Amino acid sequence: MIFTYNKQYVGDVLMIIVKDSKGGKLSSERKGRVARVFLQENNETVAWNIFEVSELIALEGVGQVSLTDEQIAVLNSELAKEGFQESLENDSNPKFVVGEIVEMVPHPDSDHLNICQVKVADDKIIQIVAGAPNATLGLKTIVALPGAMMPNGSLIFPGKLRGEKSFGMMCAPRELALPNAPQKRGIIELASHTTVGEAFDAKKHWQG
């Protein structure tokens, strides 16, 4: 789930994105301060909007925000009070982490894409389709995992590129809005000693 909040420009509304609607037709229902957004074709929930949310919990930050388990419990109580059967789940794992390309093969249907196996934790390897010209075997970079919100507001969900599954994105400095980022294609190149799975920290991982 992706939690976003921007009181200045959106209002006192916590927006919760559950899944990618993939352009499907949407409807919504509102009960009290809670609105559920769902796909018309199958009634599947894709998002929640919780209005006047600051009356329920205290939020810090702008854009993608993190919530504590205690705050999630308060919001779930509000959903239950309004008669909704579903509940919110908290995922406190970092969404931008250090990854290492451990395998890379050319995409069978593209002359510039590669299918990369990227290690994002000691026990986890994910597939990412990427077109970065500097992607090489053994390179360590910053990976945006499903559930990440980029600085420009775009969301990272599992998907396909030219028919091949992709479960994240290896990031360029400009995509992370880093200071003095080169305005050209190419993912971040980290030192070989950088720890795989470490949460992204601009002060530590970027010397632009």
UniProtKB/TrEMBL annotation:
Phosphoprotein in keyword set: no
Residue ranges constituting the TRNA-binding domain according to the UniProt record: 90-201
Superkingdom of the organism of origin: Bacteria
Signal peptide from the UniProt entry: none
Keywords per UniProt: RNA-binding, tRNA-binding
InterPro entries: DUF4479, NA-bd_OB-fold, tRNA-bd_dom, tRNA_bind_bactPheRS, YtpR-like_sf
Protein's name according to its UniProt entry: Phenylalanyl-tRNA synthetase, beta subunit
Xref: NCBIfam families: YtpR
UniProt xrefs under Pfam families: DUF4479 (PF14794), tRNA_bind (PF01588)
Naturally occurring in which organism (per UniProt): Streptococcus ratti FA-1 = DSM 20564
